Amino acid sequence: MVQILEGVAVLGAFTLYMIPSIEADARNRDDAFEITVFNVLLGWTVVGWIAAFVWARRSTTEKRLTHLVRRTQRAVARVTIDKLVAHAAVRGAAQRGMASKLRVRSRTVAARQS
After folding, report:
1. 34: how many CB neighbours lie within 10 A of its CB?
2. Is residue 20 within 8 Å of residue 53, measured between CB atoms?
3. C-alpha atoms less than 13 angstroms from C-alpha of 82 in its C-beta half-sphere
4. Amino acid 61: pLDDT
5. Of residues 37, 41, 36, 7, the one with CA closest to residue 20
6. More confidently predicted of 65 and 34
7. 39-61 exposure pattern, b = at least 16 Cβ within 10 A, e = fewer
8. What is the Cα–Cα distance from 52 to 20, expressed in whole angstroms?
9. Domain coordinates of the chain in residue numbers?
10. What is the predicted pLDDT for the residue at 114?
11. Alpha-carbon radius of gyration of the chain
12. Phi, psi (5° rounding) for residue 60?
């Protein structure tokens, strides 16, 4: 019974020790191997383990930049679409107004010619 408890304790301690590596793998990081090596070599120090954990939790710069670019493109697209819709609405209103003025003028010209 004692051996089972010791085995569970060792397995639990190993799992706790490898949490930064597990986290990096769960997040599908490209540098998961580097984090694992760092964790294995320096994780026995509290500072090394915390550094590996923070490194594993931090999002990669490339992903942040890609996300920022996509967000910016969407914002620009929304503004462009809003401007196009507003322009079309103004132009449609202007054309309707011009059509009614043209009808009035054509009637006036036709009445003068008769």
Report:
1. 13
2. yes
3. 6
4. 67
5. 36
6. 34
7. beeebeeeebbebbbebbeeeee
8. 6
9. 1-58, 61-114
10. 63
11. 34
12. -75, 150
